[in-house]
Design a protein that fits this description.
The protein is mostly helical. It is 42% helix and 7% strand. It is built from eight helices and five strands. The strands form two sheets. Strands 3-5-4 form a three-stranded parallel sheet, with helices on both faces. A two-stranded parallel sheet has the order 1-2. Strand 4, helix 8 and strand 5 form a beta-alpha-beta unit.
Amino acid sequence: SPERLQQPSFLQRLNDVNISMLAIDEAHCVSAWGHDFRPDYARLGGLRDALGNIPTLALTATADETTRKDIVHQLQLRDAAVLVTGFDRPNITYRVEEKHQAAAQLEAVISRHEGESGIVYALSRKRVEQVAEKLNKAGVQAAAYHAGLSATVRKEVHEAFIRDEINVVV
């Protein structure tokens, strides 16, 4: 929590373990220009300074040039090396098809990729819940994931997906 980052006891414990590097994942959250700005992340520049200006690694797969510059600024990085690679991910396929018989089309896609992981997008929370329920009834290990769920439930779904305990997130 942001309050915890400011507590001297917390900072002292971090200094006691002699941290040699700060790695910030999802660094686009540091930037107001990022698609997922979180005010708590903005405090990480101060944490870095409190730890003795240690080397800092900021990682993101979604920052455009403006966001990258803002990340460097917000984290107060000096002489930062900014490395950008392509966004082609051969292990990820995105496909958009016209909807005719949505349930049958979805069933066909899932059967072609049986045992593989996938994400199904729906336009509303209600529809997300409905699709996840239908998939489960059809024997597909699926879970709903949307902003209306508690942070705890979203985290559980995310972790279950990463551990291959569910195959489809809707």
